[in-house]
């Protein structure tokens, strides 16, 4: 099995586990993820490390343009998943407008880097 297949298998297993747990006992899922949200600095570092490791292997197999297309697909899927919670998200909007994106500076830099890298690859490679 290739590294990409292993990563895809991990995604599939985690997705199925989450869906099954949420269908059977949503409170159990919330108890599982609650510590992640209570420790955002540690969770951010862990997510960043996992993103770097995963990104390294993914970018060994596919181009940044293909990654960008896959990310766009994921953005649409996340959007579909969040739409039932649009009222809650609109409340969050007010906090984001009030505080700005300073709290999300790392994510902004990462997305900006990917956007510029993709545009460079499309138009100059």
Fold and architecture overview:
The protein has 125 residues and is mainly α. The protein has a domain at 62-125. Helices cover 88% and strands 0% of the residues. The protein has helices spanning 3-24, 26-38, 40-61, 64-82, 86-99, 105-124. Helix 1 packs across helix 2. The protein is globular. The relative contact order is 0.07. The model has no long low-confidence stretch (mean pLDDT 94).
Features of the shown structure:
88% helix; 125 residues; mainly alpha
List the helices and strands and how they pair.
Elements: H1 3-24, H2 26-38, H3 40-61, H4 64-82, H5 86-99, H6 105-124
Helix pairs in contact: 1-2
Entry summary:
With about 120 residues, the chain is mainly alpha-helical.
Task: Give the biggest beta sheet.
Answer: none
**Beta-strand content bin:** under 5%
The helix-strand sequence is HHHHHH
Which value, in Å, is the CA radius of gyration?
17 Å
Kindly state the number of beta strands: 0
| Low-confidence region ranges | none
| Percent helix | over 70%
Mean of pLDDT: 94
């Amino acid at each position: 099995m290739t590294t990409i297949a292993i990563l895809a298998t991990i995604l599939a297993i985690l997705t199925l586990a989450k869906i099954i747990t949420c269908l059977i006992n949503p409170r159990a899922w919330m108890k599982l993820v609650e510590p992640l949200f209570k420790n955002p600095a540690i969770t951010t570092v862990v997510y960043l490390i996992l993103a770097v490791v995963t990104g390294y292997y993914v970018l060994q197999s596919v181009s940044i343009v293909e990654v960008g297309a896959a990310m766009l697909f994921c953005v649409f899927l996340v959007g579909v998943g969040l739409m039932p919670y649009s009222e809650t998200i609109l409340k969050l909007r007010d906090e984001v407008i009030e505080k700005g994106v300073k709290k999300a500076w790392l994510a902004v830099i990462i997305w900006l880097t990917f956007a510029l890298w993709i545009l460079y690859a499309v138009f100059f490679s």
